[in-house]
């Protein structure tokens, strides 16, 4: 699920750009799905080794992975920059919460599936609107458009009736199914659900990236004029990339709402948008492994900072100021350091080192670096 389909950076030309399907597509799809199933099973098995709180953190990582994978696809493959993915997550979260509240009488599983589907639709529609506008913009102008979207989120939730204002919305409690109630805790069940849904989302993104749409996105990213001359619809390709990324972020927001049983504008701030983007860059733009690293950093780094501030003899006022801000500062420092030492991110650096080792192994008498 991870490597080969996400590491093709060069934009192919000719027949492949114009739409011819890559060779051996079906075996690759089967391999990708098989790897995804294996990874999800390993994650599910790993939840038995974790306590409830760490299973809760694992579920959060899965939710944010949907957003970072979609954002990595948007930035790394189509070359579009978004600073407002937190707003797209919020769109999915509110879509899930409204649906779950309206369908409270339905069985738990059906309510969850229906909520996720509505979250995808709502986030995709928002992404379509932003993508249509963004297709005419480049670089900082598109970033400014998406940033305005996330900054307007609190005003939208306060103005639009039914969104709960600053307090947001709560969703009906969804317990562990009766057949598993005596075996696993609620947090472990939530981690299972998130692992399955995140696996489906990430697998879909990987397959899209490996197919015709991914080829077109890379062609547009590398040279829009050349892509247009090769028959690639540049504007439509950009919009499709934004819609896919928004839909993935919407699923992430819905999963976050599923785990926390609440959605509010305070959970989807500008800081979260910046953390998502920095996490993707630190992990490695356009790489699935980089999206995983970014999602882990978004969840684990603030938790470690919180543990550190609690352990140090700090005053209550200073600890309150450091809460949240220190994690953002560390993200910035990490980004600067990695930009200097490994511009391709953590996943890129690991991939480059492995490639160097393989080249060294082919040269008799030389040691790997």
UniProtKB/TrEMBL annotation:
Q: Mind telling me which InterPro entries this protein's record contains?
A: ABC_transp_permease, LivM-like
Q: Which UniProt keywords apply?
A: Cell membrane, Membrane, Transmembrane, Transmembrane helix
Where is the chain membrane-spanning? 32-50, 56-76, 83-104, 110-134, 141-163, 189-208, 239-261, 267-285, 292-314, 326-350
Chief localization class? membrane
Q: How does it sit in the membrane?
A: Multi-pass membrane protein
**What is the top-level taxon of the source organism?**
Bacteria
Q: Name one Pfam family in it.
A: BPD_transp_2
**Cellular localisation:** Cell membrane
Q: Does the keyword DNA repair apply?
A: no
Say yes or no: keyword Cell membrane present: yes
Q: What is this protein called?
A: Branched-chain amino acid ABC transporter permease
What is the species listed in this Swiss-Prot or TrEMBL entry? Cellulomonas fulva
